[in-house]
Write a structure and sequence with these properties.
single chain; 147 residues; alpha+beta; Dna Ligase, domain 1; 2 domains; 7 helices; 46% helix; globular
Length: 147
């Protein structure tokens, strides 16, 4: 995991240098947490996790940092209904499955969809910047607790 963070951190350093942005301790720690998170945390969750290491950080700083990361291509927002926003530090092409009961989010690869060509009705209507499938269902844990 540390190697994954180091790669992301080096990329952040390079991008900050190119864009004239400061590489702050807050940005570094938010990136560290996001790079290690497997649960697609909200800004509030990231804030509570980072606050222990960076007591002076504010929730506003976390939101602004996530916005900067998305602008730089270091993070993506996972579109989840009724949610203020969940964030993904993995910007490689992949899809998400969301539990409608507990809100858990998992990544998955679906090459048939990822590599397929979009219909002309989509490409004629707009310039596509991203494709992502969101599958909704009830996870094993929640399904088991219903029984």
């Amino acid at each position: 995991m540390e190697q994954h963070f180091q790669k992301k951190f080096n990329h952040l350093k390079e991008l900050c240098s190119q864009k004239g942005l400061r590489l702050t301790h807050q940005r570094t720690e938010v990136l560290r947490e996001l790079a290690s998170a497997k649960d697609h945390p909200s800004a509030e969750t990231l804030y509570s996790r980072v606050k222990g290491r960076v007591p002076a950080i504010s929730l506003d700083t976390v939101y602004r940092t996530l916005g900067t990361f998305m602008d730089l291509g270091l993070a993506a927002k996972v579109p989840v209904d009724g949610d203020l926003g969940r964030f993904d530090g993995d910007v490689s092409p992949h899809h998400h499955v969301v539990c409608v009961c507990c809100g858990a989010i998992r990544d998955f690869i679906w090459d048939e969809v990822s590599c397929g060509e979009l219909p002309a009705e989509v490409t004629d209507w707009c310039h596509v910047t991203d494709t992502q499938v969101i599958v909704r269902g009830i996870c094993r844990d929640c399904k088991g607790s219903d029984s």
